[in-house]
Structure formats: C-alpha cells, structure tokens
Amino acid sequence: ESMIDIALISLAQAPQIDVDGYAGVCWTGSNLFFSASDHVVQRHVDLCRLFFDKGIPQMGSCWAAQLAAVAAGGACERNPKGREFGVARKIALTDAGRDHPMFAGKRTAFDGFTSHADIVTRLPEGAVLLADNAFTPVQALEVRHGEGTFWAIQYHPEYDLAEIAALARARKDELIAQGTFADPAALEHYHADMMSLHADPSRRDLAWKWGIDEDLLDPDQRTLELRNWLAHFFGSGNEA
Length: 240
What we know:
By secondary structure, this protein is an alpha+beta fold.
C-alpha cells in the first residue's frame, strides 16, 4: 500500500528523514533563495544529495530545479531581469526535451505558471537542459548524479489561477517595484480577473485579455510532467 508523507523540512524543529523509507520524492517550491543561502538551504541540499546517493527518483518545481542543480554541483544566482511572475511565456523544449519522457504528450512550446527570482546559471555535470524561454535560461532539466535521477522544472504545474492571484498580493511590493504592475490598483485588477477566470474557465473574454489558454486551464495539460514522472518510475499517473 502506497503512502504520501509531507515533510516540512524548513521548520526550526525539522523532522528526521529516513531516506530509506521513500520510493520517490517530490520537492515543492520554497521561499528560500540560493542567492541568500543559509543553514536551512544547506539542509535541503544535504537531503537531496542523500536521495541522489540512494538512487531514489526525485521530481519537483521551482526551488526544486535550483536544488537539483546545486546539489549536483551546479550554481544559481538572482535573475538580473527580476522575478518571473504569473505566466512563464513561450517555454520551449530543447531537442533533448522533445525526446524526454517527462514531456511525452506535451507541446514543444507552452506557457506555465511561475513565480521565482533565482535562476540556474550553471548546469552540473550529468545534467541535461530540457526547456528554456527568453526570461529564464533553464526552465527544465534532468540531473543524473550519484545513483539517482532528478526531473525538475522551474515553473509550477501544481499551481492554478487562484494560487497566482494570491501570490500577486503576497509579492505585491516587489512586483510593483520591478514594474510588473504599475500600482496597487493594477495588481488588484489582475487579482480580480484571475479569481474570476478561476471560478469560470469558460470566460473567453478574460482568457483572451490575459493570454491564457489550455496550457494553464486544462489540468491534464498543466500537470502532465508530474503524471509522466509517476508513470515512468512507478507505473502510475493517469489517475493523479
């Protein structure tokens, strides 16, 4: 019988992780930054390396892409373009990405939900670039390190419009300061439209206004990478 365990390893009193108790690991996004590394960041790196050493498959989004790279010897820095927020546009699969099982059934160019300020700036040995776009040079990668494999994406297949709306408010000051939104009123207008489209995805007026299509509105398309990971390593995923 399979079991899902959610481990909050960034807490001051972080749980002890028995890596041998896991068949696979999914890493979420995080408020941590490799450009401002500390002991909590190192805790993540050390644990990721243990999973690599044990040959336990890993997958994840956003922070996970940076973690996969750094844990295997790559590097991350603050993106000089600022925070990529809302929708990562025109994510394009590389030649390797087109042939990679994580992207089986995916379009060769697509949009994805996103919110990140750090980027992978150097791939480690054993890594393959799978996707990029104009804002972020590494949107997806596979890292083979030690005995393990990590499939990682910089964007968020697990997000939806409501999550992005909430994040707009949470990142309000930064997003206005970098010019993503002109002022608080513009941000609130965006928030209202995202929540309205989330409540009623058939609102073609809002979808057209914000350039949002089935890449983001169709859950099967949006979560395909995660389902492909489950299918590839565990023979499941169609029901995820």
